[in-house]
Amino acid sequence: MISIILWITAIALSGCGSNSDDDQGIVTIHLDHSVTGSELVLQTIGYRNAADNEYGITRLEYIISDVYLEKTDGTRSALTAAHYRNAFDPDTRSLSASVDGGSYSALVFTFGIDGERNHTGALPNNEAFNHMAWPVPMGGGYHYMRFEGLYNNTDSVASFLTHTGPSGGNDYSIDLALPLALSVDGDEWEIALIMDLNQWYEGPIIYDLNGSGPIMGNPDIQAILQTNGANAFSLGALEPHHRDDSDREHDE
Amino acid sequence: MLLFILLSLALVACSNGDKSLGTNSGQPTPYALNIPPRFPPATIPPDNALSVEGIDLGRQLFHDPILSADSTIACASCHLASAAFSDPLPRSRGIAGTTRRNSMPLFNLAWSSDFFWDGRSPSLEDQALHPVEDVIEMGEQWDNVINKLERHPRYPALFARAFGDHLPIGKELVAQAIAQFERTLISADSRYDRWLRGELELTVEERAGFNLFFTEQGDCFHCHVDPLFTDNEFHNNGLDMAPPDSGLAALSGRRSDIGKFKTPSLRNIEYTGPYMHDGRFDTLEEVVEHYNAGFARNSLTDPLLLIRPSLDLNPAQKAALVAFLKTLSDASFIADQ
Fold this sequence. Notes:
The complex is a heterodimer.
Chain A: H1 2-16, E1 25-35, E2 38-39, E3 47-48, E4 54-71, E5 76-86, E6 94-99, E7 102-111, H2 127-131, E8 145-152, E9 157-164, E10 174-184, E11 188-196, H3 199-202, H4 219-229, E12 233-235, E13 239-240, H5 245-251
Parallel strand pairs in A: 1-11
Antiparallel strand pairs in A: 1-2, 1-6, 3-4, 4-5, 4-7, 4-8, 7-10, 8-9, 11-12, 11-13
Chain B: H1 2-15, H2 52-62, H3 75-78, E1 93-94, E2 97-98, H4 124-127, H5 130-133, H6 142-151, H7 155-163, H8 171-183, H9 191-196, H10 204-213, E3 234-235, H11 249-252, E4 261-262, H12 284-294, H13 303-306, H14 315-326, H15 331-336
Antiparallel strand pairs in B: 1-2, 3-4
Helix pairs in contact in B: 2-7, 2-8, 10-14, 12-14
């Protein structure tokens, strides 16, 4: 007990004794989605990709990990180790973190989890991450993405399951560094990280949903989706965080 | 300030030494759930913390037909311990006929949400309120239940022990006590669990079933997520081309939710037949055959099923899948209740 109190005291004193954090700011990333510029509407069949599949979305869940802001000098401020996003659940839309003051030039993250760390039990034991489990008999770890829906084929409705992950024990996660120009000086900023869903099927390799079938055990298709997925992300405009009434209430 | 609070808390904790909480002034005795290995943290509502006395009261209420209008039906009448707290009947018998749906099994509820097959109750506490006033199930009015409990020779004292500061007896306390008891129904000691713990070996057939279950060939794992063997979500699993029971859609109003029902856990599935929300399948073999080739295909059916024309399992594979499902039986859970 004494050692815990000393540890808490040390942390508290170290926090009180310095003004070096004055320029720290808060950055919020919103994980948003579009389909070739259109806003995402779940469930409705009405989107069309380059293979001329007319499709709708019934599920979109994914993990991003090792999320950093990178300064021009190469130093990094961590935002989160791993974040689960479910497009059906607004509570999962955003991640926020305090970052050091300074000029940042990129948002850096991994779509999915890199191969070395993608093993069963690597992420916190909660329903969201467990939901993304990649089964042990298929190598273990976690799906990067579960993107599911329906499409119209020639004579009936059919489904697609764009499930990406460590197929065959290989690493198909995607490392991304999206340029930005952000100067943090004790203030708060927010920015949208936008995934364009059609890019998974055409950016640049055209992927036809017809007859795609289950793909978790198909390394060739995972490689195609890895290539396309690298072009699926962009950043929206940087905006200063607007404090609303609930923020003010909270502060008081 | 934070440091002061932390140090104060630490000093208070030290001054208590190793005294058990709840032994003073008749306060209920806190009860900590024994969380099984591999299970995520349990969800306990802060306004209904578990106590030894609350759980005991809930257990007695769960088994007492006093909750029904004619004192013939208890919760336990349709949730039999021998059936993992489900009912061997396709639809249970209430005081005024048979229920609309199959009785759901009750275990591992501290890891569940959105109760009933259609998810209409957001909490166990809310769920426990419904059967009493359901005209088919218990057909009673809560005011009458409270009157009976207040006049009962034993219950007033049990409520006082469990909820001392919150009396008088009300339906909310009844529901809280039942919910506390239900959260203690934990099942995690099946042959599968013991195999994972290295305590025994599965047979060759059971291993084959395990591999089918957890690969795309059987594709059970996407909805029946380990370790709870449910995703706590709602799916249309293709039981009917035109579902006579709209399921989740009755609440959401969305056409896409027609025929969606909550994914049941497959733990103890050997004990919980008949199967599906309407109890239409008597055996696990019928269930496996439904997923193998027998489901309805239309725009309401879950994409996880529509992805292929058939699972195309041969008889040996289907038998292996059933053999694996039976490794999820927790005999000690049944025996201990």
